[in-house]
Specification:
Radius of gyration: 17 Å
Structural class: mainly alpha
Length: 174
């Protein structure tokens, strides 16, 4: 049985977005324990020319939401990018996961050979076949922003490790 586009996309986004929400819980607990304003964590970045934690999470949710909507041929919900708290970021993640669950897997699977047009910043647009778009654009970008969010919190001292990054993967111990 072939591996489908929806199998390659939806579980990856759901598991990793839920992992992001879980590391935000740890960030909140860390801020409380250390008596740090959580906004300090939300505005932290790895480098002056990189997005801060808040923007990393916004971009990760945007990529999952907009990319899968393009594959499914539907309009994604619009978010305002106005989150200022950990709770608001977790709500954004939850809304994104809920949206992913509404998508028709067959529509996503049918996008493999369809040309997908997508914005590349400013007025630039890119175009790729659906399977290339998922494998060579959506997933790498999504993982980049999830990894950056994780690395920002780890750099700030939040006690998270690889298992936190991986989330609740479907793993059997043998």
């Amino acid at each position: 049985m072939p591996f489908s586009m929806s199998q390659a996309a939806l579980p990856v986004f759901e598991i990793n977005l839920n992992a992001l929400a879980a590391i935000l819980d740890k960030a909140e607990a860390f801020a409380t324990a250390k008596k740090i304003d959580p906004a300090v964590l939300l505005h932290s970045r790895l480098s002056p020319d990189m997005f801060d934690l808040t923007r990393q999470i916004q971009v990760a949710t945007d990529g999952a939401r907009r990319g899968t909507a393009r594959l499914a041929g539907v309009e994604p919900p619009s978010y305002e990018d106005n989150e200022t708290t950990i709770a608001q970021l977790k709500e954004r993640i939850a809304k994104t996961v809920a949206f992913l669950k509404t998508l028709d897997r067959k529509q996503i699977d049918a996008a493999a050979d369809r040309e997908i047009t997508f914005p590349l910043g400013g007025t630039n647009k890119g175009q790729m076949k659906g399977d290339d778009y998922l494998n060579h654009f959506m997933l790498p970008n999504f993982y980049f922003h999830c990894t950056a969010a994780y690395a920002i919190l780890r750099h700030c001292g939040v006690d998270i490790g690889k298992r936190d990054f991986l989330g609740a993967i479907p793993l059997k111990m043998v």
